[in-house]
Amino acid sequence: MKPIKILSVDDEMDLELLLTQYFRRKIRKGEYEFFFAHNGLEALTLLLKEKDIDIILSDINMPEMDGLTLLTKVNEMQNPALKCIMVSAYGDMGNIRSAMNNGAFDFATKPIDLDDLSATIEKAIAQIEYIKNAQAEHTQLENIQNDLAVASEIQQAILPRIFPPFPENEAQLDLSAKMTPAKDVGGDFYDFFHIDDDHIGLVIADVSGKGVPAAIFMAVSRTLIRAIGIQGDTPEKCLEKANELLCNESVETMFVTVFYAIYNVKTGELVYCNGGHNSPYILRANGQVEMLPISKNCILGAVDGLTYEGSHTQLGVGDTIVMYTDGVNEAFNESYEEYGDQRQKDLLTSLNGKSCLDIVNGQLESIANFVGNAPQSDDITLLALKRKA
Question: Is the pTM of this model over 0.85?
């Protein structure tokens, strides 16, 4: 533990001997360390050299620079952990009052009552420790916030962000996606990747929880599903393998819901497996909007040894599939009213026929208008794919 550093500023030379004698035990134990100056100018010079002085014990009436001027200079340093105790004659209450009004921590009168001064110093030390702890916590919080900002950038960077993502298939399909975390980092993710020339893997997922733990589990889940998916396994086999691996790594009962599909860019066939995720909507070219059947499969990362059941559907030319996480339909406004499935279906009906980017942005705009000033309660993620030919 570092000693409390005390700077005594007084033109009376005998005060130095008095203080070192009275506080000799604390000095020997390394609890206090004293420095001495005989006027304000000497004190400022010493403060520049010893930047970690904790307490200034200053006389008011001194030559060259008095204590009130020194106090003004100390205030300009803007160090709330540096406490000034002013000393003056008992009858000099005007100057003492000026010192207190200008930010002095406390005062003592001459002749100094050393027992009282000791109590004042201890009181100042308690305040200094409180301020230093608060400063340390503030610095730690700033570091965490900076780390979260970097983590957010990294998380967004690992999600595909270049649209259109497959220029070679631009004539055959339109695709857009967006993830908006509720906090600095989120647990939702989307992904898409070529499996071969004719097939594209599509993923949307929602990790349990929020913040950093969810973000880490999200990164692990995305990496596993992509690594397994590009090998060409069926969606159900992909989720079975991912579930086994996630169960081995899962901590604190974390899990992830996943919708994984493989889209045939030539035929429009979509084979998929839904691991406990929200059922996507299909916006048909004839204007109808339908939801895929509710999943009977379990979430991933909770129970090992499970088998998953796949399914398939067909996208006709002009049809669009819209995948989403529950941050969409479970968004709440200031009246705690839920956005809901019906409102979402009605909105998607009104957006049918538009580009995937317009559908994603239109859904996000609708949610924002509905929520108003209520805080975002969950991550919001959308992925839309349209068969163009």
Answer: no
Q: Among candidates 328, 68, 285, which has minimal Cα distance to 177?
A: 328
Taking phi over 0 as left and psi of -120 to 50 as alpha, with beta for the rest, 29 belongs to alpha
Identify the weakest region by mean pLDDT among 26-35, 170-179, 249-258, 309-318. Answer: 249-258
Return the pLDDT at 224: 94
Label each residue of the chain as H, E or C. Answer: CCCEEEEEECCCCHHHHHHHHHCHHHHHCCCEEEEEECCHHHHHHHHHHCCCCCEEEEECCCCCCCHHHHHHHHHHCCCCCCEEEEEEECCCHHHHHHHHHCCCCEEEEECCCHHHHHHHHHHHHHHHHHHHHHHHHHHHHHHHHHHHHHHHHHHHHHCCCCCCCCHHHCCCEEEEEEEECCCCCCCEEEEEEECCCCEEEEEEEEECCCHHHHHHHHHHHHHHHHHHHCCCCCHHHHHHHHHHHHHHHCCCCCCEEEEEEEEECCCCEEEEEEECCCCCEEECCCCCEEECCCCCCCCECCCCCCCCCCEEEECCCCCEEEEECHHHHCCECCCCCECCHHHHHHHHHHHCCCCHHHHHHHHHHHHHHHHCCCCCCCCEEEEEEEECC
Query: Are the C-beta atoms of residues 173 and 386 closer than 8 Å to each other?
Result: yes
Phi then psi dihedrals of residue 153, to 5 deg: -65, -40
Of 273, 189, 268, 185, the closest CA to residue 229 belongs to: 273
C-alpha 370, offset from chain centre = 25
Q: Which amino acid is at 324?
A: Y
